[in-house]
Fold this sequence. Notes:
The complex is a heterodimer.
Chain A: H1 2-17, H2 19-39, E1 47-53, H3 58-69, E2 73-79, H4 82-91, E3 96-100, H5 104-111, E4 117-120, H6 125-147, H7 172-202, H8 204-209, H9 215-243, H10 253-277, H11 281-299, H12 311-317, H13 321-335, H14 339-363
Parallel strand pairs in A: 1-2, 1-3
Antiparallel strand pairs in A: 3-4
Chain B: E1 2-13, E2 20-31, E3 35-39, H1 46-53, E4 61-66, E5 69-70, H2 75-81, E6 82-85, H3 97-107, H4 116-126, H5 139-151, E7 157-160, H6 169-184, E8 188-193, E9 204-209, E10 212-217, H7 219-224, E11 230-234, H8 238-246, E12 251-257, E13 260-265, E14 279-283, H9 287-299
Parallel strand pairs in B: 3-8, 3-9, 6-7, 7-8
Antiparallel strand pairs in B: 1-2, 1-4, 4-5, 9-10, 11-13, 11-14, 12-13
Amino acid sequence: MKQFRSFIRKEFYHILRDRRTLFILLGMPVIQIIIFGFALTNEVTNSKYAVLDNAKDIVSQKLIQRIEASQYFEGATRLYSYDDIAKAFRKGAIKIAIVIPPHFAEDLGQLHTAQVQLVADASDPNVANTLVNYASAIINDFQQNEFNKDQQLPYRILAEQRMLYNPQLKGAYNFVPGVMAMVLLLVCTMMTAITIVKEKETGTMEIMLVSPLQPLLIVVAKAVPYLLLSIINIISILLLSVYVLEVPVQGNLFLLIGESILFTLVSLSLGLLISAGSNSQQTAMFISLIGMFLPTVMFSGFMFPVENMPKPMQVISNIVPAKWYYTVVKSVMIKGVGFKAIWKETLVLTAMLFFFLGMAIRNFKIRLA
Amino acid sequence: MEKIQVNGIVKTYGSKQKKLTALDHVSFTVKEGELFGLIGPDGAGKTSLFRILTTLLLADSGTATVNGMDVVKEYKAIRKQVGYMPGRFSLYPDLTVKENLAFFATIFQTDVNENYSLIKDIYEQIAPFENRRADKLSGGMKQKLALSCALIHKPTVLFLDEPTTGVDAVSRKEFWEMLKGLKQQGITILVSTPYMDEAALCDRVALIQDGHIMQVNTPADVINGFGKKILAVKSSDMLSLLQLVKQMPGVLDAYPFGEYHHLVLADEQVKLDFPGEVTVKETAPDIEDCFMLLMKNHAA
């Protein structure tokens, strides 16, 4: 026990004396949350658009005003011919063009039907889709308010949408769980892997091996300080997301923290496993980044929805621990469900923990080669 | 009693196609309380042998015991009893002198005070820098700290892998004085060095080259067994002198030696004629001469 305490104290000396690394470890989650919260967002707002108004009547003016008033569009460019549309797109000045046909008001008044053409720059399909949807919604809304107010059409089906859990469709609801998974994985896996390999590089492992120390003790003592650091990170991420990004914790806070610690332990044991197989800090870092970080970004469902992937990819995604943790955080934090709903994910993570830890201890080399 | 026994140790590195033999049937014994030197140039296999004896590497074949315990089967017990100082400075650079010592004391299940008397003479020299980080120490001080850490648990056998490499002449001398002191406390010491002049300070030495032990003997007997006459020659143009003497009949070997060239003569009767400006004197062989001769015979 005395050995264990002394070892952990030594680890803390290492961490606390390397100020720069410590700053990165504790500052990274804060910076990531802020970057994802305010800079990297896939919400589309304030898009530049153009209008080709061939009608130039009162109704078309009103429609254009309505579009201009929305937060999604700004800075209308007036166009005068179809050729201008192509030119404007090529210049990259606009994302979407709205074409109003001649006799717009008359068509509406007499035929009760009129067409508006939406032309979008689909080189980024997601943005194009979103903008077309926004514009259609605005046009529909305009039509409802302006023309159908008094007329009672006998048969009308209105689809009413409700966005559950995230009515404002905030991006933060999606990336807070993702950033949590990423940060914990980076701090725990990469740092533990590096710290053990560092002992090999400096030759201190050589002395430690020629000592009565148990391998298990070395492995566990290496992980403890990073577990504590991660708990600080979990708390700072949660504080930031609740108070800065206004993403509330809907479910049980302690369940969320408990699951986060479980995921931290999985990441730590992964780090220990990586360290057992590498002999230089570069190798350890490379394996952690390519082998852990990339799959986390790709397969956790944080950036790209797993359900849309081909079947084999979906199967592969199951071995990525972050995928399970991401689901857990989304369920507990955003949907507010209890343990009953996430017992399966918890079980998978626990199994992974025992598997990786067992492998790490088994592969811990008691000799140099 | 034999503290270290090495029997026919073979160690190779690399694949089957490109095999590199680091140790080739190495055998010797070290007696209790002996200061035993493993003398050989870089790449002779000294570190491999140390790692096998400290249970860090497995030999391909052959057996070895330390304190009567097998290095493979009883590695755990050996790790509790030996002290090991690797060739490279291997302490924590970001920990202070005091913290390093305290840490190594605890992992060896002891504390600094318990065996302080053993390291007192060594540690007192670095005690004024107790709170300095290990990476801010000079080479000689680092080495004293490493030795203190290797001794803190009062090992019965001490393995020192090239402890004086890269250390200045004064510190080297001090270091060997310290080893003498430890020997008097009954610790068996196996020390390796590439410096031939340090061989004379050991009780017995093993001369190792290319994984072969060429001779195991006391330093005095190594020199006594030389049995050849040596001339030391000097002139203003040392390079062409070396080329000249190498071609002289009756000269077995010639090599630079300090400010002279040493010439090993085939027998006592050989008479050589030198140009006028060459200084010639007869000299007694030392370990380095023995080593050169053994190497030459071994190669032939």
